[in-house]
Write a structure and sequence with these properties.
mainly beta, 2 helices, globular
């Protein structure tokens, strides 16, 4: 029988706006992580960057001029690199200043916005999503900061989500999820030509009722932790750990009364490595929300992963 760990809601008083679509948590310190509210309601075209301190139980929220797909905390304090709508830019949480530097994303298609991303050293890989979740027109991009060069790696995704990088003697591989396919794939990444290979399926979830969303590697690079978005009322949601060599599930974290898991993050808390899971209210009817009273909350859970093997993410700028 697979090990199952029950995650607990973080004790925060989040507004309905912030509970609508939380995603993209990233550790920024011991017991502290950032996350994005992608959209503050079904008819809202704006979101926020948030910073949560687990030791104090406080969450700070900073409004953005659009809908963010990701926000990476920079090495410069209070500064984030953000993918917002169809632009890349910097956001300062002290001044609330938004400074875009790249706006050529998905210029030949309509009704897409930036979604998930990941840094490759000092460069960035990110994807976009079709807002109707239907058409293969969204992009997968590589942005070279030194050359200010934007390269489209794919132009046929629907909703580009979870990403991870595996480094080995053969180079760099990109783990990627185009959510509606319900498959996790791996590409070889050629950083000289800025091209990727044909995809290899490493985790097949085509028979699963839930949709794979955000994902992170375990520190040993052997397993992938994937959050599953189940778009229906259920007693719990799931975030699972998969062996990348076999595709087999190794561990399940459950979020009680919150079936729409969006993204996981590993966050050091004291001497332990905890799993933070964001969940969402998006797409839920009033009846489903009444049944799933924890929907849209942030969750925290124990892991068996050693904190000694965990390196805090460091982003440029």
């Amino acid at each position: 029988m697979l090990p199952v760990i029950e995650a607990q809601p973080v004790d925060l008083s989040l507004s309905d706006e912030l509970r609508f679509l939380p995603e993209g948590p990233y550790a920024v310190g011991n017991g502290v992580f950032s996350w994005v509210g992608i959209q503050h309601g079904v008819d809202q075209l704006c979101g926020s960057i948030n910073r949560c301190d687990l030791t104090t139980g406080q969450n700070e929220s900073f409004p953005l001029p659009g809908r963010p797909g990701f926000a990476f905390p920079c090495q410069t304090e209070n500064r984030f690199i953000v993918g917002c709508e169809r632009e890349l830019g910097f956001f300062d949480t002290n001044t609330l200043q938004w400074s875009p530097f790249e706006n050529r994303i998905d210029r030949d298609v309509s009704n897409t916005i930036i979604n998930d991303g990941i840094f490759v050293d000092e460069d960035l890989i990110f994807g976009t999503k079709d807002l109707e979740f239907a058409t293969e027109k969204a992009g997968l991009y590589y942005y070279d900061f030194s050359e200010k060069r934007l390269v489209r790696l794919r132009d046929d995704q629907i909703c580009s989500n979870g990403k991870a990088l595996i480094r080995n003697v053969d180079g760099v591989s990109l783990i990627d999820i185009d959510s509606p396919t319900r498959r996790v794939v791996q590409y070889s990444l050629d950083r000289d030509s800025l091209a990727i290979s044909e995809p290899e399926v490493v985790i097949d979830l085509t028979d699963d009722p839930a949709v794979p969303d955000g994902a992170i590697l375990t520190p040993d690079q052997r397993s992938l932790i994937v959050s599953l978005f189940l778009p229906q009322a259920h007693a719990y949601g799931e975030t699972r750990q998969y062996d990348l060599a076999t595709g087999e599930c190794q561990m399940i974290w459950r979020t009680p009364l919150s079936p729409q898991n969006t993204c996981p993050a590993l966050v050091p808390v004291g001497d332990s490595l905890k799993l933070v899971i964001t969940t969402a209210v998006e797409n839920m009817s009033k009846a489903d929300q009444a049944a799933c009273t924890n929907a849209g909350k942030l969750f925290i859970a124990d892991t068996s992963l050693p904190s000694a093997g965990f390196a805090m993410p460091k982003y440029p700028a």
